[in-house]
Write a structure and sequence with these properties.
With about 325 residues, the chain is mainly alpha-helical. Among the domains are: about 50 residues, no CATH class; about 35 residues, no CATH class. Helices cover about 70% and strands about 0% of the residues. The chain is built from 17 helices and no strands. Helix 1 packs parallel to helix 3 and helix 13 runs antiparallel to helix 14. The longest helix is centred in the last third of the chain and has 30 residues. It starts with 13 loop residues before the first helix and ends with a helix. The model has no long low-confidence stretch (mean pLDDT about 85). Keywords: Cell cycle, Cell division, DNA damage, DNA repair, Mitosis, Nucleus. It is found in: Nucleus. Pfam families: PDS5. Its main location: nucleus. One of its GO terms (cellular component) is chromatin.
Length: about 325
């Protein structure tokens, strides 16, 4: 077996052989887990069904704690069962079994369960109860940074899909309005920086083709459900963004003021600004070095575009154009 469903002997059903051998020597499963996982993910329906049947038979064996020993594989198996027939009578029980493993002691298992539940939700949001999705969201407070970050990315993906479904009228438009609030709350987590949360809110939360009007409409609806803590957290994120904008405006004004003046004096005044602005980035040291490199550039179009970008009167559409123009200029320089 190769993991992609191919075999050197097409008529040979090795799944039955694996089952028979496992009953005599359970330890053999460790070596073939990657192949079975690959078969669960293959595009070939016949192979997927055989893998699901084999694992179903293995998990059903009495006195063989395979589901405990191989939790990631078990989670992938349960997800495959759901996707093959989401309306099956056992669907609620399968989802419940997956949700129970969200509290597993192993971070890899917890992450795998988040993957399984979110994959099913992204296939069709109706397949996963909202309460189960909220249990997934609790992993934003996981002790593992890996699980927390991954959960945030997947929740943003679910919310994007939800926005699309609401936009085309195929879904009730209030079931997942709680997702942005959960993400905003993470700004108080020491493992997350507010700029990380800001990036998710700005770049990952809404579909790429959403208009400004669509985004505003969603934010108004979402914000109306924020509690005091969430309102304060969002205000803090926006205040930090505003301070960065104001400090950049100060820097640009100083550059104009000392354009033909003392370079040493300009450096003395701008250096503290670089340090302050750098604290608003994920890697402050790298950001400060970037500001120093920026300060040495002489492209007039770049400085004009940067001034327009930091102008409070610049519209959202104009700021997007300015940002793209700056990126093109930086690629050339």
């Amino acid at each position: 077996m190769s993991g992609d469903g191919t075999s050197s002997t097409s008529n040979f059903d090795y799944h039955e052989v694996i089952y028979d051998i496992y009953r005599c020597a359970p330890q053999i499963l460790s070596g073939i887990i990657p192949h079975l996982t690959g078969e669960l993910l293959t595009d070939q329906l016949a192979i997927r069904l055989k893998a699901v049947k084999l694992l179903g038979d293995l998990f059903a064996l009495p006195d063989y704690p395979i589901s405990e020993a191989f939790q990631p594989l078990f989670s992938e198996f349960l997800k495959s069962c759901l996707l093959s027939n989401p309306t099956r009578p056992e669907a609620d029980q399968i989802i419940s079994s997956l949700c129970d493993r969200l509290l597993d002691y192993d971070e890899c298992v917890r992450k795998q369960v988040v993957t399984a539940l979110c994959d099913v939700a992204c296939h069709d949001l109706k397949f996963i109860p909202v309460e189960s999705a909220k249990l997934v969201a609790e992993r934003l407070r996981d002790k593992s940074l890996l699980v927390k970050k991954y959960t945030m990315d997947r929740l943003a993906e679910i919310y994007r899909l939800y926005c699309c479904k609401c936009s085309d009228g195929s879904m009730n438009c209030n079931e997942y309005d709680w997702v942005p609030a959960k993400i905003v709350r993470c700004s108080s987590d020491k493992d997350f920086r507010s700029e990380t949360i800001e990036m998710v809110l700005c770049e990952s939360l809404f579909p790429g083709d959403f208009s400004v009007r669509d985004k505003v409409k969603n934010w108004v609806k979402v914000f109306s459900g924020f509690d005091k803590f969430e309102v304060k957290a969002l205000e803090k994120i926006m205040e930090q963004k505003q301070r960065l904008q104001q400090e950049m405006q100060k820097y640009l004004s100083l550059r104009q003021m000392y354009q033909d003046g003392d370079a040493t004096e300009l450096e003395k005044k701008t250096s503290p600004l670089f340090g302050f602005m750098s604290r608003g980035f994920i890697d402050p040291a790298k950001a400060e070095e970037g500001f120093k490199v920026l300060d040495q550039l002489q492209d007039a179009n770049m400085w004009k575009t940067l001034m327009n970008l930091t102008d409070p009167n610049t519209t959202f559409q104009q700021s997007c154009v300015c940002r793209d123009d700056l990126l093109r200029i930086f690629m050339i320089l």
